[in-house]
Amino acid sequence: MKEFDLIKRFFTEQGVKRKDVVLGIGDDCALVHVSGRNNIAVTTDTLIAGVHFPHETSPRAIGHKSIAVSLSDLAAMGADPTWLSLALTVPEIDEKWLEEFCAGVFELCEYYNVQLIGGDTTQGPLSITVTAQGLTPVDKHITRSGAKAGDWLYVTGEIGDAALALKHIQGEITIEDVFKEQIVSKLDYPKPRVLAGHILRDYASSAIDLSDGLISDLGHICKASAVGANIVMEDLPISSVMSDTLGHEQAAQVALSGGDDYELLFTVSEDNKVGMETALANSGIAITCIGQLNASEVITTTFNKKPVPITVSGFEHFSSNSTV
């Protein structure tokens, strides 16, 4: 099977056919039609085997995660996902692997009504690059730079389980058999918070998705907004499995530094706090207030109102912790 046969068999047929796609896969470029007063949000992510996912990860999970991480970026901006392109590099054509990979890709695309409109395939070490696009009203989007001192700091869902799963895979800890599938699925099948992002564009002053760890990603908001923050350690939303496996203190440290959660970390003013909480609660989205911003331009942590030193950092490429 050659390149264009591969594209035709595995990527041309898909369940999503958006009306705003004028021309999709099969030409030199795709064409999309944008109407009304919208901005286009664009994000690109590359996933490399052994860096962003363990080599033994199932192809379906790789396909899912490849799309999920880009949709998570769009969610952090408050964008509604629309189209994506996919550049896939594989060592060889393995039809069974490609079938499972595409199942993971298109399952998520169909759920969020996102159409694959183009990309590229080539031979080489396994890597996946996705460019995803979404729409926001011209006057409604969220950035990292809008936070103010006094804003409250929130996170969706629970954090740390993906990092716990990676520690298990790497042999650093042992998870009870009954909980392994539940925890590993948090690493392999993250759920982008698209609905939360859509709602938050009416309330949040800033947001970011948690890909590299809470401390690291909060640092991006603080730097962009020229603010500081205090995190209340006892309020971190940690799963009971994680707490029971590591103990609360170590679990909190992992929650601060562990990546791959793809939850949303966001800030909201006192005036918008009640409205935001009500809107997200009505949509069934769990959130937790984990601290507050200040003018210090420094991140601190406290436990029971006592300062706790920060001894961890998040993931960063080209550092010693940049492989899995």
Describe the structure.
This protein is α+β, with helices and mostly antiparallel strands. It has 2 domains: 3-137, 2-Layer Sandwich (60s Ribosomal Protein L30, Chain: A); 152-308, Phosphoribosyl-aminoimidazole Synthetase, Chain A, domain 2, CATH 3.90.650. Helix content is 36%, strand content 25%. The protein is built from 10 helices and 13 strands. The protein has helices at 3-12, 59-76, 95-112, 161-169, 177-188, 194-200, 214-225, 240-246, 248-257, 270-282, and strands at 21-23, 31-32, 38-48, 80-90, 115-123, 127-137, 152-156, 206-209, 228-232, 264-268, 287-294, 299-303, 306-308. The chain has a 7-stranded mixed β-sheet. It has a 4-stranded mixed β-sheet with strand order 3-6-4-5. The longest helix is centred in the first third of the chain and has 18 residues, at 59-76. It is globular, with a radius of gyration of 20 Å.
